[in-house]
């Protein structure tokens, strides 16, 4: 690892810890009440969902509009697992129960991602989008009619295991894993398929295998996000995981920039916090929300960062460089 990478990792780690400490102090001093803490937790969950969708929509370049279906599978399977553990009298620390439930939710969603992705990834563009919408609606209707998970009335009695402390660090870990995937051999192979599938196949890359891998990994992390959602809300309602929720996640990814994880993070923060900030203007909330998206698409159609990533190290170095230039100009004028 070269010096610049070590420096970048150190700066990012300091920034992550500093941000956590700021939130920790605000929560402990009651400066942030439960309402704002809830917004922060939901923002972290939406960041995970947006980054997971970016694996398919950004890295692979395919239109997937059924991400809410994988989230629902992860939410219901993990909630059922944790309820079975707790009802069975198995006494485990809450964080251990949450981690086990997340793993179960992620694996079950990933298996469905593999089963759905294997036949459907032969399609492209709008056709793939239509198939994923159909899959998501099948999942939603299944849970509406599935008695063991409460049917249309929803699944109640889920133990709340999620708080800001654990959801923050889980989000950081997921972001690190997905970022590492994008820089790995497998990630570069997936991105090459997005750029030119025919050339990738001619170069010896097994395109079908990597497309299914991307789809399965996206479903896995969506399942993790669903598990966090279930164990924060303590109640699951099938109608939450409808078509419009998938569209919301897709809008976050497009607004941040297809292929940009930092874009997805910032976009998820903006599009989760903005509707809450406008809640007092309930009559105009959706209007303002829509106008922001339309203006963004007109003036910045590639999204906030496009396919680039925001670098905190480069940002700090540019600020230092500007300061040095100003000082040198000021010193020259003084002389």
Automatic annotation (TrEMBL):
UniProt cross-references to InterPro entries, sorted A to Z: ABC_transp_permease, LivM-like
Keyword Cell membrane assigned: yes
Entry's localization field: Cell membrane
UniProt keyword list: Cell membrane, Membrane, Transmembrane, Transmembrane helix
Molecular function via GO: branched-chain amino acid transmembrane transporter activity
Primary localisation category: membrane
Protein name, per record: Branched-chain amino acid ABC transporter permease
Organism: Acetobacterium wieringae
